Prior knowledge:
The protein is of the alpha/beta class and 325 residues long. The chain has two domains: 196 residues, Alpha-Beta Complex (DHBP synthase), CATH 3.90.870; 92 residues, Rossmann fold (3-Layer(aba) Sandwich), CATH 3.40.50. It is 30% helix and 16% strand. It contains nine helices and 13 strands. β1 and β2 form a beta hairpin. α1 crosses α4. Bound molecules: threonylcarbamoyladenylate and magnesium ion. The site of threonylcarbamoyladenylate (TXA) has 29 residues, from β4, β5 and β9. Threonylcarbamoyladenylate binds next to β4, β5 and β9. Belongs to the SUA5 family. It comes from Microbispora hainanensis.
Amino acid sequence: MTAGTGDIEKAAAVLRAGGLVALPTETVYGLGADAENPAAVARVFQVKGRPPTHPLIVHIGGAEHLGDWVEDVPETARLLAERFWPGPLTLVLRRGPRVPLETTGGLETVAIRVPDHPVALALLEAFGGGVAAPSANRFGSVSPTTADHVRTELGDAVDFVLDGGACGVGVESTIVDATSDVPTILRPGGVTREDLEAALGRPLAVPSTSRVRVPGQHPSHYAPRARVVLVEPEKVVAEAELAQELGHQVGVFLPPAFADAEVKAHAVVEVPASPDAYARELYGFLRELDQRGCDLIIASLPVEEGLGLAIANRLRRAAGPRPSD
Ligand code: TXA
Ligand code: MG
């Protein structure tokens, strides 16, 4: 059930009172608090189980408000905001005095975006301020793309859940450091590198996933309970069957080229051929295979262009070393 006007008003009141609201965005659901209220922001970290040094993204209602939250708006940032907002792009800029250090994890920069979702925009309009919101999942686990995912994972720890249906993009926003005039991609996401490069008229650097570059970018982010193993697409079926024979409960991400294959495994999901559809389904697939009792997931990486870059980034992190390793 999609949120109505009464729900929006109630959610805005919860934010004003320092409470937590789960809100839909076009990427994933966020766990929102008043960005200017350090006590409310502290609760976000507590509920997520996230270390307080991992900065949050501040969601605002329109590009015209950007100047209220940052020290200055460099030309490149202005251009990107005009081109991609509302949309799945987050800009890291120098923090303005309005943003408490609790929200930025102690950094002198702040991450800002305008979400492209009618419910999120209605909430931001009714609330009037900025909403600090990480993805509404426990630290390190898979991001939620439906209101039910949020309720299952966070339950009563959230004061109010706004239901806006399933998220249309399905992977988080692209984060661009725009503090200098040589912008860099800190996290690939819903806006593609190709679209950014076309808008800027120059190539952009993308970090390798093997190094921790910014707080909150640990290799084992976005991980389901089941262990994820990545293999070449043509080896997915054989590896899955071998692991199943060895006694694992194997979940398979069946690549589109092998959609007709019969696989002897515990559970199989068919990867959509379109990257848009794959991004939308990715986190739901990981949750589904966990729920069906898989202890091992065999998958392959998509071609790393367009949204495939963000999908591959999340799969690599899901397969990364766990904190307990
Ligand atoms: O699509 C999204 O971005 C979703 C929705 C809810 O908007 N939000 C999201 O938030 O993915 P979260 O907290 O799960 O990821 C935010 C990322 C973290 O990796 C954090 O390190 C980075 O943004 N970040 C935030 N502020 C930063 C800053 N000042 N400098 C560098 N990275 C920053
Ligand atoms: Mg997250």
